[in-house]
Predict the 3D structure of the following.
Amino acid sequence: MSLKTPSQSIAKFRPPSAAVIEQFTAIVGPAHALTDPDAQQPFLQELRGQFVGKTALVLRPGTVVEVCQIMALAHTHNIAVVPQSGNTGLVGGQIPYETGAEIVLSLARLNKVRALDGAGNVMICEAGVTLQDAQNAAQQAGRLFALSLPSRGSCCIGGNLATNAGGINVLSYGNARAQVLGLEVVLADGRLWNGLRALKKDNTGYDLKDLFIGSEGTLGIITAATLKLVAQPKEQATALVALDDLGKVLPFFTNLQDSAGPALTAFELMARRCLDFVTAHGADMHDPFDAPHPWTVLIELSGLSDDGAAAQHLERALAQAFELDLIKDAAFATSPRQSAALWALRESISELQKPEGGSIKHDISVPISAIATFITRANKLVETLCPGARPVPFGHFGDGNIHYNISQPKTMEKDAFMAMRDDISDAVHELVVELGGSISAEHGIGRLKRRQLPSVKSDVEMDMMRAIKQALDPSGILNPGKLL
């Protein structure tokens, strides 16, 4: 099945009539009801260019009341709606199909921090607040909003929660789900659920917020969230560490975690090819080591005091790792600028892989004890299926999440390589399932992996998900053809 093939759930919808478009326009005003194709374009294409959709109308409501009115009207006229906030999703979940039958509902104008209680460690943000702005607001109150992604300047809270985003801090703070105390959600029929509670304990029935976190806009539209804040670290120690053997990464991680405990806030694995691509295509990107190493790990320890304890602890831990022959070299950041430079190497991988041509990407997780086995076996699978293809594995080792990207062979045309996507991805995902893992660790299912979901979920699981969808969106107007 092609990625562009609409499912039965989308085929039944038709674009809104001119009269209905007028009614939608009256809700948000003509300036925020976009019908011009050029004005719509930023809302119709995802970052990787795999999905380019079509719509008769992009709506940009400025209030939650307007979102409710839009959904009530869509429910009345059976109009399919695609929710979108920052449009940084990587599986096509926020992009309409090419049929033009759906309208796009952008939440970008809902961008207020409604409340911030530093003493109570909570903040209420609307769906269109960027992750960077949420982090900045927390920082100004002396607190940390711990969710962190490379796309922090453009991704938004609504999309972060709709996809249950992960990122670099999951090891210590958990994924997006762990950062949420309450939600405000507009349902498919336009009703508003105000669940913006700031309670850490509320044992009064089903935890409804967890239905919507990770649901990819298929059950309701998240318009605001009560977010959990934590103490702002006063010190962070950063180092890039080189290893000569993938098999040594796990014992190195175990030793470091045993000694550092919750102070270990990042442990990011990168294959050699990651640094090769980044330093070849990035401005002011430099490998800090004199000689190339097959594996590197970016480590960060955080402390609540500014007495240098985190740096001292990291130095001791790495000295022990040298003695045990687990690592071969280490580059310490001695200033915030050097720390940022090391992090830039890690956070630029996806962007600076693009000049190498076509890329088949996988966002998988396996038990951390199986990561080395997965990468080794996946590399062999890829070489068998497409000789000369170049695996680029990297990711969040501490929580088992590996971004297993594959760049096209240097001697192969991009279109020919990308035509192999299904065969390669199926083989990689079969290995993931064999090892007890997941085919989507943090990006979601969207359109990209919808075809594969039934092969990794039991019939009972699929039935339960469909029953929840039917209960909350019986007409199927919310993001049809995504996830299910």
Observations:
- The two ends are 14 Å apart (CA to CA).
- The CA atoms of residues 181 and 198 lie 6 Å apart.
